[in-house]
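Worked example 3 (structure in, sequence out).
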């Protein structure tokens, strides 16, 4: 089976991972690697777009509606229009704020046109001097946690349909995430 045929046939990566070693043909393994790479690329592109404030690129990573859960940071848990989500991020990540978002230890499963990926995450957020009352100098806030993405293949492209971040640790003034949280 060629890589293209395997992808077109909807080879499930979960089934491949559970298949006996003799059934893990090079083409099926390659199909799994390609699909996982594409999912990571979508999430990496979203991180890059937010950090560079490229809101058109950020929006392109989502389906039209997104199940969002940022409740561990005090944000919403709701289904929202992707346009509304990105517009809120655009307001929150205003011009004087800088950020860096990183993820690692990705675990992805694909089942036909649906996928899920979890990752460990880290985000660095900085507001300039004077932006947060009571903080001398720039306000720096860091957070560590878990990302949970769900994807759907829409018109042949993977799009994020579910976005969750669960914070496990943070450091810095809590006014910073409040200042960057979308409305």
């Amino acid at each position: 089976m060629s890589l293209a045929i395997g992808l077109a046939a909807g080879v499930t990566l979960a089934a491949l991972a559970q298949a006996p070693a003799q059934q893990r043909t090079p083409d099926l393994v390659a199909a799994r690697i390609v699909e996982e790479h594409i999912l990571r690329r979508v999430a990496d592109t979203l991180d890059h777009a937010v950090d560079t404030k490229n809101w058109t690129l950020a929006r392109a990573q989502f389906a039209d509606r997104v199940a969002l859960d940022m409740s561990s940071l005090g944000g919403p848990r709701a289904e929202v229009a992707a346009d509304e989500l990105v517009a809120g991020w655009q307001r929150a990540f205003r011009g004087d704020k800088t950020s860096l978002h990183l993820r690692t230890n990705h675990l992805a499963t694909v089942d036909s046109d649906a996928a899920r990926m979890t990752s460990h995450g880290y985000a660095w957020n900085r507001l300039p001097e004077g932006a947060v009352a009571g903080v001398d100098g720039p306000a720096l806030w860091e957070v560590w946690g878990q990302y949970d993405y769900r994807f759907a293949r829409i018109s042949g492209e993977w799009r994020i349909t579910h976005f969750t971040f669960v914070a496990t640790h943070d450091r810095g003034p809590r006014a910073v995430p409040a200042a960057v949280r979308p409305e």
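Notes: The radius of gyration is 18 Å. The helical segments are 3-8, 13-18, 26-52, 55-59, 82-92, 175-180.
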